[in-house]
Amino acid sequence: MRPQEAVERALALSRADDCIAIAEESTTANLRWAGNTLTTNGVTRSTRLTVIALRRTGDGVAAGVVSRSAVGADGVEDLVRAAEADAAGNEAAEDAAPLVADGPAATGWDDPPAETGIGVFEGVAPALGEAFAAAESAGNRLYGFANHVQTSTFLGSSAGLRLRHDQPTGLLELNAKGAGGSAWAGVGTRDFADVDVPDLAAGLARRLEWGSRRVDLPAGRYETILPPSAVADLMIYLYWSAGAQDAADGRTVFSAPGGGTRVGEKLASLPVTLSSDPAAPGLECAPFVVAHASSREASVFDNGLALGATDWIADGTLTSLAQTRHSAERTGLPLTPSIDNLSMAGPGGGASLEEMIARTERGLLLTCLWYIREVDPQSLLLTGLTRDGVYLVENGEVVGAVNNFRFNESPVDLLARLAEVGGTVPTLPREWSDYFTRAAMPALRVADFNMSTVSQAS
Predict the structure, then answer these.
(1) How far apart are the two ends of the chain, measured CA to CA in Å?
(2) What is the pLDDT, as a whole number, of residue 103?
């Protein structure tokens, strides 16, 4: 059964007052390598059908939601009845709103779902072979993987909505190990045509050379250059924490003392902008809301709402928080739903990472962060570890690798202490790449990044 047919069948079988159906079909291609050798490759396929049954009650509308994988034609009715039974047992939903009746045109609704295959790696695999040979001759080992997923989403409702979106999502992670320790590089991509394996491998070889000299440093506050990947991990967590409803309820760092939110308050010391845009080149994502369940940041009633370019922070000032129609009505702020990409930019073009290193008198250069955990939602204090290379920069040159650290920092507080913002480039968040890959970030210089303790992680 094609996903479009699953949507139409679910809507036709529904006995609810209103119904929304979301069908997704995905294919995934992958390559893996270890010790300078390709090890596995393969292609998998998956499907999921979500039915949202809406039941009018005396005081509102109750919602029932059920999702199942690999639903055949004979299983659609059982899924629909399960969603209706769920709605029958629920009270009126707080976020209830009229169904979206119009939206972007459903271009290609009847076309087959998009697919990927091993052929997407036709330019990557030979380049990896050359990188393996170069690493072998230098006494190093390369490890890593590449994934490519094509997901076609079909959304329909009893209000007549029919929307489709095809989303390619790719990433490549490359890890080098040798006498100089360990180094990591990663990229997000739509089709692998823009993945430069020789450049990634050369960067890793250079970092291993930096690691040939070791320097032990104590915990403390250091001038630190955060590369785009590390910045992405911090800013994505900030973005995930920027829900309007939680802020209005006094639960987060974006809550104003005495009530309300901090929208309109200047957060950053430099005029940076944090934004999302479903049409951002290279970071394109769904131009409408796809919500499989309601939460404090999403509403099933908002399925199909059109999305547009949104500034979350503009020129250093908090301008928007993630909103549903329900939270927008509560807060009185504009409706700004979440979008599946994130970009950050500073004033002007910004320096390259290499240029920022060249004008550093003494400081640290990070590679990436990992094991990030929230300590305090009121300040958005995070803790985590550095990983795969922390380097000492003196007089504009990297002079060696230092030990790893545990850090304690709030990305919101960091914005208030920015010393320099580099040029924005596409990047892959190391920590969150399983959930969020579409990001473009600058490198950031922070004069006093808090390396709270020395870590024994290697």
Answers:
(1) 49
(2) 62
